[in-house]
Amino acid sequence: MAGADRPLSPHLQVYRLPLTALLSITHRLTGVGLALGALGLVAWLAAAAAGPAWFATAGAIMGSTLGRIVMFGFAWALFYHLSNGIRHLFWDAGFGLELGAARLSGLIVVAVSLIGAIVAVGLGCALAGGAS
Amino acid sequence: MSAHSGNSLKTRLGRVRGLGAAKEGAAHWWAQRLTALALVPLMLWLVVSLVALAGAPHGVVVAWVKGPVTAVLLVALIAALFHHLQLGLQVVVEDYVHTEWRKLALIIVIKFAAVLAALTGILSVLRIALGA
Fold first, then answer.
1. Quick check: B52 and A51 CB within 8 A?
2. Are B94 and B25 in contact (CB under 8 A)?
3. Does the domain spanning B25-130 belong to CATH 1.10.10.10?
4. Which of A25, A47, A63, B22 has its CA at 20 to 30 Å from residue A9's CA atom?
5. What class does CATH assign to A19-128?
6. Which residues of A touch B44 (CB under 8 A)?
7. How does pLDDT run across A48-76, given as a tens digit for each residue?
């Protein structure tokens, strides 16, 4: 397999990925990250079911500075994977596959993911206040 | 044809069945899209709900889960989310892990873990929703 005398494509160490390719691998990376986020959601629900003491602990972790940074990461990954997933569904239906359209929809995905994460976490932090 | 025609209980048909490319790919692909479609409104609802609940005390979150619609949507979300997630992680493993037994072991671990996590989440929701 390795060293086979045939053209290889694209050689990732020397090939500058176009935007669409960069967005594609980011979709996969955010998907793997969000799998961890799903475990976080389950942990939060389990803490709520376990009672006020466990729930307070979960709240303190999420409300800490590191917790808020992680929540922002999950929020960005979620908005990215969600909007890019919708982009993929349109492709599956046969729409938006032209180069220009794929590039434009990719830029929209990046914008939506950033705006969504900033608005969601910003509102969440404002509502939670400076508590804990 | 194969050299070893005897010395096995397997018929000639049984020996070749499943060796082609066409297996359960279409069902996997379809399930990935269906769960994605379901998760678009469910995740948007979850994000809006979690932002509104940011910093809320235990009693408020419990009352939210106990709502007539919330528990159903949460259970649906957890089921769709973990089904979607294990389908996606399976593809990632299949793409990057090339040692057959390692690939199989990882996929089995992922699928079992996804089922356990989903059951934990669903049971937590039910404990709150049906609890006193």
1. no
2. no
3. no
4. B22
5. mainly alpha
6. 82
7. 999 999 999 999 999 999 999 999 999 99
